[in-house]
Amino acid sequence: MAYQSNAPAQTDVLRILTFTTLYPNAVHPHHGVFVEQRLRHLLDSGEVKIRVVAPVPWFPFKHPAFGRYSEFSAIPAHELRHGIEVDHPRYPVIPRAGMTAAPSLLTWSLLAHFKRLLARVQFDLIDAHYFYPDGVAAVRLGRRLGLPVVVTARGRDINLIPQFRYARRMITRAARQASAVITVSEALKSSLVALEVPDKQITSLRNGVDLRRFRPVDQGAVREKLGLGGNVLLSVGHLTALKGHDLVIQALPSLPEATLVVIGEGRLKAGLRRLAERIGVAERVRFAGEMGHPELAEYYSAADVLVLASSREGMPNVVLESLACGTPVVATHVGGIPEVIAVPAAGRTVQRRNSADIAEAVARLLRNPPSRRATRSYAQNFSWEGTTAGQLALFRRLAGRTSEGNAGIGVPRDLSSAVHGRQQGGRP
Question: Exposure of 293 by Cβ count < 10 A (0-12 exposed, 13-18 middle, 19+ buried)?
């Protein structure tokens, strides 16, 4: 459900310049879709105007010899997506030295583009997503242009990249210099505090889920449509080691009645197929590829359990989407996952990331599943409404636009706590 409010006078509308390399485009429509989702719900409030700058690596032309890198050349310089104008300026990427040089390359490549935009529109703030290199560059640009900067931490940018000393130093400096920091989970907030970023500077605003798009449908009908039967498991995400699809496949010998549908694409696809063949479960594993939200929602409704075996996570959207479709989840106890899977209606978490524990948790959930109605009811605590309200309150404060008309919008330090308060006897 989108945030509802009485739209303010046009002169009171916030003008937000969103900056991130994680954003969908005509060539990669699913890239960074979670950022687009949050912006679309913010736009639905009627209280903002948004322009997105989503830079992409420069590449001269498209040719099969260059593989996926040449796809960047086909991304349009400008497009309109869901009513939001999106620019895709180019920036150089230097092989091998790319990680260290990326913040500076982004800053210098985008400065002129930002100045051209500001010459036409007076933006109130920069809304950056993903700390490295995007957030680091955004803070540098904001200081040069005199704009407040809010950076949202989303997962790997805090859970993994700070293992590299130079990147950690840049992230910590940018977080301290930013006007405010948003994290999508309390776990990410704790990780930033551990990097010596002041607690008072960080607001936790979790991801939400579109409850209209992701909702239960008749399981029997959708299974017949998709050709599925028996116990159906889903494993959703890029086919990388991080997501642990291999562990879910390895759990299948202990779940002889289960069929697994793997949704996603990536470089490990061939290896995962070979693994399924080697352990004798190939006929029970379906690789469905990458798909859009309408198709994905059908698979959630067809499934008995979503299994997420990630080694790291921020606040994974797939968990919220599955719950909204009435399907419980078995997931590793990492990142923000325990903040969501915290009642029986949501499913179970596993402390040890291995196929045996995953298989046992799935088997227990299949033997004693929550009702799909209870799972859906629980998911309704995770609409976008509170997240949008928190963003508006924070953005208005930073832009100096707080007024009596907005005084009723509070920005809780821990938005998930606001949900917990509504759940007597349990955490969401």
Answer: middle
